[in-house]
Amino acid sequence: MNHKDIWIEEKYEIEKGRTLKIKITKSLEKIKSEFQEIEVVESVSFGKIMLIDGVIMLTEADEFCYHEMIAHVPLCVHKKAQKVLVIGGGDGGTVREILKHDNVKEVDVCEIDRKVIEISKRHFPYLANSFDDPKVKIYYEDGNEFVKTHKNEYDIIIVDSSDPIGFAEVLFRREFFEAMFQTLKDDGIVVTQAESFFYHSEIIKSLFFFVRDIYPISEYYYTLVPTYPSGVIGFTFCSKKYHPINNFNETEALKLNDLKYYDKGIHKSAFNLPFFAQGYKY
């Protein structure tokens, strides 16, 4: 291999015999926080990339595919969301999208690792500048503990988490979803990162095994992100009142500007799963 050829390799799936390799030009910053290793690299095809413990968190080229879908789907369903909680989301992309909705008055961000936000501000300011908005308040706390002390407070909770390994594993447990149910107002919605239906069927099945017992409405939807495992990443949609299709507010969706992925057609089609995956949520 030419000494100028430097590649990173996605580590999350490597033990299962599958990986993603991306050619990079240099490492821009690498630190070890109290919780994890965080690295930012410059790539040939995807721009800057953030990795946490060797796993790709985001790239400049395709971050919008994820952030637009995790934020706008619940915000275009809830009728009057004013207070939103983001658990994780230290890069700022989800908050950037939430702030495009004029009805939102407060955004609380619960990010356990302040180093993620610090690095994002240095290398991804077009995402992390969202934290400077006066509507946004940051809590450097454990999200699992945070929701236990805020009852009946939020219209929407968005869990923008890493994969269910290490300290993030608790965010995929029944107890966490039960605590979030109590943290929501009577018509609240929870959306969480929920892995790929191509690679992680057992995780999705285990989630919906208990989610459907807690929330009156529970659905799975997905988006396409080339640099995530299998190119597909899904979300749970858990609601006390609103159905993601029957209560979809097209007027709110049409008001949004500066989008690259989400629109009213994508909103509806994202819940239409391939035949082989339709049974994972039952």
TrEMBL record:
> CDD domains from the entry?
AdoMet_MTases
EC code? 2.5.1.16
State the top-level EC class: transferase
Q: In which pathway does it act?
A: Amine and polyamine biosynthesis; spermidine biosynthesis; spermidine from putrescine: step 1/1
Molecular function (Gene Ontology), one example: spermidine synthase activity
- Which domain of life does the protein's organism represent? Bacteria
* SUPFAM superfamilies for this protein: S-adenosyl-L-methionine-dependent methyltransferases
Cite the Pfam families for this sequence: Spermine_synt_N, Spermine_synth
Keyword annotations of the record: Polyamine biosynthesis, Spermidine biosynthesis, Transferase
Which amino acid positions bind spermidine, per UniProt? Answer: H67, D91, D160, S161, S162, D163
Q: Which residues bind S-methyl-5'-thioadenosine?
A: Q36, E111, D142, G143
Q: What does the record give as the reaction this protein catalyses?
A: S-adenosyl 3-(methylsulfanyl)propylamine + putrescine = S-methyl-5'-thioadenosine + spermidine + H(+)
Q: Which residues form the PABS domain?
A: 5-240
GO biological process, any: spermidine biosynthetic process
**What is known about its subunit structure?**
Homodimer or homotetramer.
Protein family: Belongs to the spermidine/spermine synthase family.
Name under which the protein is recorded: Polyamine aminopropyltransferase
Q: Provide the species name.
A: Candidatus Sediminicultor quintus
